[in-house]
Design a protein that fits this description.
single chain, 282 residues, alpha+beta, PH-domain like, 2 domains, four-stranded antiparallel β-sheet, 7 helices, 14 strands, 27% helix, 27% strand, DUF4429 domain-containing protein
Length: 282
Amino acid sequence: MGDVLAGFHAVWEFESDSVLIRYERGIRTPKLFQALGERRIPLSAVEEVTLTQGKRGTVALRLRPRPGADPVMEAAAGQLREGSDPYRLALPAERSTLAEYYADELKGLLTESGPTDRYLVAAPEAPLQFKAYDGKASFDGTTVQFRWSWTGASSTKWKAGDQSFAVAGLSGVEWRSPEVFEGHLRLLPREGGSARPTQPDQDPASVVFGLGYGPVHESLPFAAAVLAGVRSRGPVPAVPAPARRDPADIAERIRHLGELHQAGLVTDEEFASKKAELLAEL
C-alpha cells in the first residue's frame, strides 16, 4: 500500500506485509506511546481490524493482535485504558471515509488467526529499569534483579536480601497495572518451584507499585521484555558477581537492618548474618 495515515498521537504507515506505527512525542501523548517510540506490526500478527465511533467527533481505527503475538499486550492482559491502547489510532470524524478505506484494505490482507506459538512483534529492548515502591528493578536481557529500598521494602524482603533471577528459570511474568489498587510485577518460576507468598509485598520475587512508582510506561515495557526473554530462553546463564556498592549505601542498609533488629523483626542470628553479607560487598 505504501500510504500514511496520521491521527492523534501516532502515524500509521501501511506496507504490503506490515503496519509501521510511529508514536508522537508531546505532553498530550500517552507516556506509554512515547516509551514504545516506533513499532512494526506484521499483518501475520493481526487477527482483526475495526473502525468505531469515538468520543467528541472522532473515529478509532484499531488492530486486534492475535493472542500471543505481542509481548506488550500479553503482559498488559487487558488492563490498558482505551486511550493507552497502542493498537488504536484516533482520528477526526471528517476522516472516517479515509479510515474506512484503510480498514477495508487491511482486512483484505489478513490471512492468519488464532494464537501464535512465538512473538511476532518485537519486544522493548533491554537494558530496562524502573523504580518500584519497595525497590529498583533492572533487566539486562538475561537476568532480572531486584534491589530493595530501605524505605519501602518489607522485613521479609530485607531478610531475603536483594534478588537475581535468570529468565531461563522463569515461566512468566504477572503484571498488575499501577493504575489500580495493589499494582505489582511478580516473576513466576518454572513448574515445581516452592510455595509462594500470597501478598506481593511479602514475595521476594515481586516488586510493588505505588503513586509515582512503577508507572505503566516503565513497568509494562519491562514486563514485556522479560516475557520475551522467557519465551526465547536458553541454558541458565551464569549470574555475574555483583558490583561493589557505595559505602554510604551499605551503611544506610546496616542502619535500617539495626532498626529491624531492635524492633524484634530480625533475630540476632539473622542480623549478624545479613550484616556480614553487606560488609562483604564493600
